[in-house]
Amino acid sequence: MESNQMENLVLQHNFLYAQGHQKTQSSEHYFPDHALGIMLSGESHYFSNEGTFVMKEGTICLMRRNELFKKLKKAGPNGEPPSLISLFLDQKTLRRYATQNDVPRQSAYKGKAMTDLTGNVFLKGFFDSLLPYIDHPEKLTAKMAEIKTCEAIELLLQSGNVYRNLLFDFQEPHKIDLETYMNHHFKYNIPLSSFAKLAGRSLSTFKRDFTKIFETTPEKWLQQKRLEQAHYLISKRAMRPSEVYLEVGFENLSHFSFAFKKTFGLTPSELTEQHRSTSL
What we know:
GO terms for molecular function: DNA-binding transcription factor activity; sequence-specific DNA binding. By secondary structure, this protein is α+β, with helices and mostly antiparallel strands.
């Protein structure tokens, strides 16, 4: 079992229980595996190129693998902190299940990245059966985790043929137009290795192709692109620096302010004041 006291994370095998703070929290994620989860309290807002998906208390959702998204977690109406249980379905487990159960080869899945399964009473019962393990994670042994994972797969397959296609599409991301992809996803603060995989390349090929297209390194291009977007959001959209730095992919405000001043000659706060004075 692994735990993180800052957010109260309990990871037992491929099951995760997460409880956040009462205040609003923003983060970015890339999941290489499918994730099936239920919101126990509070809210989670997921933002991707497909739009916004909101999980409120009781919402059950299946997210396909290899998804990039930003997540905003909020306390519930009575101040209860956001908490959820997630089950991760990795490729090794699904391939083994497919072999044992004679699941035929599937075509590429082209459906939604996030599917709402809230009305499924059997999945609700499945997650109810996991609640005792929150206080007794040691009871979720490797064998029990395997049994519960197979149960979840069976319940999803009973929910419709589309889930067979989603779960057992084992194709990896194909090599795509790198320039278009990066211009659409530069705001996601993920490792270069994740960008490379999503673009259908090894890390070395990704860096080589990137340099040919943009005539600079990925690190320099990403910082410049994010700073230009931040400048636009502050000067044209009147957004606060404290809102902008996370929106464009920086990890902390101080690094963002330092890089911004080095590039534009003034801090984000000074640009804000300049914009306000010219607008009066």
